[in-house]
């Protein structure tokens, strides 16, 4: 009886040890195996690759971030359709929906990496999930290209991680000084959603930029993602009498917030970042949108290579105007194509190497480069809503 | 090991663990939804202690976080439980949701949690670890079911009043399940955070609560493997749909939702009820009763001596109970001595049941005082304390544990005469088995005594009315009472059954049990009892040997309304 207890204890201890073991430094231990059919002949426009290059895509097509995910899917599919039409290299999309859930996003990445064995992954939609999933891709040695993951620190995850979405601080660093110069701002009030990761990260950036630019913060209010009533915060801000309101909010909160601000007679310009750079915003806000200043990566007024054609073909195909999410997705496809053709190789390692060397690429976002860290560089655009339309604000 | 499916199977294990934290409260009949709050607290606080590098060269650092997370979750549940455990049903659900929301807001606004941006963590949870933890939980719940505390959970779930009169401390049992739920939720929180590599307040929100609850209910909370089945089902449905080519955005959630609806509508006991059904089909005959030969542990437990004959068991001095202006019971004096069979009769509304409820501790008297087996009437502590003193009762309207079998119902009755066995069962100590066998043997004796031996595996709800009354008596007897109160046990019985019951009562009295019999069947009372008390409008109108009481004119009037017609009928 005593020996039975003892042996049970031993078995249990061994089981704990076995189950509790972690592989130490598991990163990159399995060398990526190159697929021969993905290595082609020729180079650049002449490149031909026998097998289609598998491209994994993870977007939030349902759930909270679906407002962005759908535009992204459409922009990406449109671009790859055009590229496949050129011939030589064919891309095969494997699309996964993460339903705006972290666990689904992780499972989708695992499927694309291990089972579909894609050469590169585009997405996910939210930075929140990218912090976890990019880590997996990095360890598996699969390049990833984020197209809306603007949070600080994303490219630092590793050398397989790239993005084409300019970080919020870059957009803000441009739009706040531009607004100051154009409107003569001296003091502002700041409002942000402190429940959302993206908006609270943007808020930190905003306060830093405002500090650097010597603009005084006279009011600082918070709200939560699902709030629909902002009048008490707005009334306080009205009493602070700022020259402008700097706002970090998701689209859902932005519309009622701006409307209520205007109702309360808070008529100062409202400055925001990436999050509400969408034509939908103007449609929903109507007159209240006047004077909204938005820093972002793309505008339909932007005079960039191919932008007019992109807008036209997108509108023809999907019966609605593209937004920034669509434009960044569209750009991603062209970046991948450029990287594949540069080495004429659709394997993971080759795409990683060549994506890291993209420089001065002409895209609808403007002339774009990736640095050695995987971070994107291009000129952000600052727009103001005038007469119900986004107009470039010359900073 | 499972290349390409690792996160899927890890998620499945984690979902199962989350479901267990709901399972354990549902088992005890509590709808608590604060698990996300416990998980959040457990996870956040564990990040303070989990080391950055593997332990001893290869052990997952999360092994340090697991006990911390469980302790934090359990402590939080205990502290929250002190005020909210008095709530029941939907009120408890709302209070616990509010708690989870408070935790979320707290974590959102605290400095060290990094607010909405959350904390980045390493992945220290492997599929092996997640499944190992789940296996331990499944094992623990398998061992829990037939233990004393497991039966107490089931009894509280089925009927709190009946459970307390069997000596189960309802408040404590509910708290135990609540704290266990907190500990498992804390455990889940730690594993989840170190699997998804991050922790943020939004992860522990309403949707986590919904997921856990749905999985626990779909799996079924009546058997130990319910959460496992539920989790496998919920996790596999999307994969199967993918394999079947149903990829379009809306179809997938639609099909999942529809399947959930089908399961809930057609299988109220959850998916595990299918397993139970198959089990029943494979083994048509009920499981054979273990041999009752003279093997170790087959004797009933050692039972305390009953009070010696003629010692006072119950004394009431001017006891009364008012409900507002209604005097349900008024100024009752009563003495009951060991070995007596006291009959209490009276018309409907005479206050008989109120009197019984005061004696069994379910209702406190508003005037007068009394003692039952050395305990003051209306003393703090609840009905289970009165049961512990040696009072056992049946109810006018059967309060059986409907979903439990005849034997299981009776086993709950042995609560007071058996020992806690859960921890010893976990370790497979032979003494646990001996104690369980003793309890079963004690229960089985009572079942045989009331003549239900051939139906011991039938759920109580499926018994005929008369059998249900007999089962109540068996359950009440299982606690080895000094005073047995039978509240209209013969209601719905035919003449033969009533005669058998009368015989049984007399044999119990011969064994030394003191009996208080409340009955409408006057003939049976007169036949069975040694003394009779008659109540009318809450007052004692007659008391004495049966024949004397039967001819008392006041009694006849009370029963028949007027003395002119009354006399002719007696």
Automatic annotation (TrEMBL), chain B:
Gene3D superfamilies xrefs: P-loop containing nucleotide triphosphate hydrolases
Any one GO molecular function term: ATP binding
Chain ranges passing through the membrane: 7-26, 62-84, 90-112, 124-142, 175-196, 208-234, 254-278
First-listed, main subcellular location of the protein, grouped into a coarse class: membrane
Residue span(s) of domain ABC transporter: 314-562
Record flagged with keyword Ligase: no
SMART domains: AAA
Topological type in the membrane: Multi-pass membrane protein
GO cellular component assignments: plasma membrane
Region (Disordered): 285-307
CDD domains per UniProt: ABC_Mj1267_LivG_branched, TM_PBP1_LivM_like
Record keywords, A-Z: ATP-binding, Cell membrane, Membrane, Nucleotide-binding, Transmembrane, Transmembrane helix, Transport
Compartments it resides in: Cell membrane
Protein name according to UniProt: ABC transporter
Lineage: Bacteria, Bacillati, Actinomycetota, Actinomycetes, Jiangellales
């Amino acid at each position: 009886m005593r020996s039975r207890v003892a042996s049970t204890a031993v078995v249990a201890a061994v089981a704990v040890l076995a189950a509790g073991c972690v592989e130490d430094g598991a990163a990159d231990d399995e060398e990526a195996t190159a697929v021969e059919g993905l290595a082609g002949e020729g180079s650049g426009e002449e490149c031909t690759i026998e097998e289609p290059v598998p491209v994994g895509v993870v977007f939030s097509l349902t759930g909270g971030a679906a407002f962005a995910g759908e535009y992204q899917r459409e922009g990406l599919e449109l671009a790859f359709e055009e590229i496949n039409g050129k011939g030589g290299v064919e891309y095969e999309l494997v699309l996964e929906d993460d339903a705006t859930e972290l666990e689904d996003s992780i499972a989708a990445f695992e499927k694309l990496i291990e089972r579909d064995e894609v050469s590169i992954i585009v997405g996910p939609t939210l930075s929140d999930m990218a912090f976890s999933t990019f880590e997996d891709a990095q360890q598996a040695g699969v390049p990833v290209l984020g197209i809306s993951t603007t949070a600080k620190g994303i490219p630092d995850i590793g050398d397989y991680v790239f993005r084409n979405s300019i970080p919020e601080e870059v957009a803000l660093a441009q739009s706040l000084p531009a607004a100051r110069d154009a409107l003569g701002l001296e003091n502002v009030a700041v409002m942000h959603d402190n429940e959302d990761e993206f908006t609270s990260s943007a808020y930190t950036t905003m306060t830093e930029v405002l500090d650097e630019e010597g603009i005084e913060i006279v009011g600082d209010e918070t709200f939560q993602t699902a709030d629909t009533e902002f009048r008490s915060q707005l009334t306080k801000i009205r009493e602070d009498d700022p020259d402008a309101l700097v706002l970090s909010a998701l689209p859902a909160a932005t519309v009622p917030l701006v409307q209520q601000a205007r109702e309360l007679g808070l008529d100062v310009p409202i400055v925001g970042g990436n999050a509400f750079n969408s034509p939908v915003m103007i449609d929903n806000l109507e007159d209240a949108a006047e004077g909204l200043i938005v820093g972002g990566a793309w505008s339909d007024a932007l005079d960039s290579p191919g932008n007019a054609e992109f807008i036209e073909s997108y509108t023809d195909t999907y019966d609605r105007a593209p937004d920034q999410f669509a434009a960044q997705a569209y750009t991603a496809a062209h970046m991948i194509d450029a990287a594949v053709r540069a080495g004429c190789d659709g394997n993971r390692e080759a795409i990683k190497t060549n994506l890291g060397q993209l420089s001065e690429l002409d895209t609808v976002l403007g002339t774009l480069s990736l640095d050695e860290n995987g971070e994107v560089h291009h000129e952000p655009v600052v727009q103001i809503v005038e007469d119900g339309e986004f107009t470039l604000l010359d900073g | 090991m499972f290349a390409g499916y690792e996160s899927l199977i890890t998620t499945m294990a984690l979902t199962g663990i989350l479901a267990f934290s709901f399972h354990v409260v549902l088992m005890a009949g509590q709808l608590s939804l604060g698990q996300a709050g416990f998980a959040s607290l457990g996870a956040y606080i564990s990040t303070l202690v989990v080391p950055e590098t593997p332990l001893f060269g290869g052990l997952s650092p999360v092994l340090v976080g697991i006990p911390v997370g469980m302790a934090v979750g359990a402590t939080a549940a205990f502290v929250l439980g002190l005020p909210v455990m008095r709530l029941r049903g939907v009120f408890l659900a709302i209070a616990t949701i509010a708690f989870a929301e408070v935790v979320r807001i707290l974590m959102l606004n605290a400095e060290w949690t990094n607010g909405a941006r959350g904390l980045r963590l390493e992945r220290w949870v492997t599929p092996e670890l997640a499944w190992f933890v789940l296996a331990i939980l499944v094992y623990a719940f398998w061992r829990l079911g037939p233990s004393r505390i497991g039966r107490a959970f089931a009894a509280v779930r089925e009927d709190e009043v009946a459970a307390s009169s069997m000596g189960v401390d309802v408040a404590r049992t509910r708290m135990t399940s609540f704290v266990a739920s907190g500990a498992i939720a804390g455990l889940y929180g730690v594993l989840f955070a170190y699997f998804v590599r991050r922790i943020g307040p939004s992860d522990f929100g309403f949707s986590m609560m919904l997921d856990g609850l749905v999985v626990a209910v779909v799996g079924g909370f009546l058997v130990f493997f319910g959460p496992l089945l539920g989790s496998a089902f919920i996790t596999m449905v999307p994969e199967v749909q993918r394999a079947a080519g149903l990829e379009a955005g809306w179809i997938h959630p639609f099909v999942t939702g529809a399947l959930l609806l089908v399961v809930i509508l057609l299988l109220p006991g959850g998916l595990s009820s299918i397993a139970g059904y198959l089990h029943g089909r494979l083994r048509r005959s009920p499981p054979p009763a273990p041999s009752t030969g003279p093997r170790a542990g087959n004797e009933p437990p050692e039972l305390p001596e009953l009070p010696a004959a003629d010692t006072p068991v119950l004394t009431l001095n001017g006891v009364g109970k008012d409900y507002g202006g209604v005097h349900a019971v008024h100024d009752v004096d009563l003495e009951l001595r060991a070995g007596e069979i006291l009959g209490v009769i009276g018309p409907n509304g005479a206050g008989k049941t109120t009197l019984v409820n005061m004696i069994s501790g379910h209702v406190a008297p508003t005037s007068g005082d009394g003692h039952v087996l050395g305990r003051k009437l209306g003393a703090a502590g609840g009905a289970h304390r009165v049961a512990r003193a040696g009072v056992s009762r049946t109810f006018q309207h059967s309060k059986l544990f409907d979903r439990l079998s005849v034997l299981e119902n009776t086993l709950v009755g042995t609560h007071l005469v058996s020992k806690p066995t859960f921890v010893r069962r976990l370790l497979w100590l032979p003494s646990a088995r001996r104690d369980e066998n003793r309890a079963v043997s004690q229960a089985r004796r009572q079942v045989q005594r009331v003549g239900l031996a051939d139906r011991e595996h039938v759920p109580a709800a499926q018994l005929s009315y008369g059998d249900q009354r007999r089962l109540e008596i068996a359950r009440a007897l299982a606690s080895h009472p000094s005073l047995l109160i039978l509240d209209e046990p013969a209601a719905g019985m035919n003449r033969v059954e009533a005669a058998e019951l009368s015989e049984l009562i007399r044999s119990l009295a011969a064994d030394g049990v003191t009996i208080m019999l409340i009955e409408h069947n006057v003939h049976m009372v007169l036949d069975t009892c040694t003394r009779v008390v008659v109540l009318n409008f809450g007052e004692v109108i007659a008391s004495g040997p049966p024949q004397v009481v039967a001819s008392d004119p006041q009694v006849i009037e009370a029963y028949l309304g007027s003395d002119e017609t009354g006399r002719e009928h007696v």
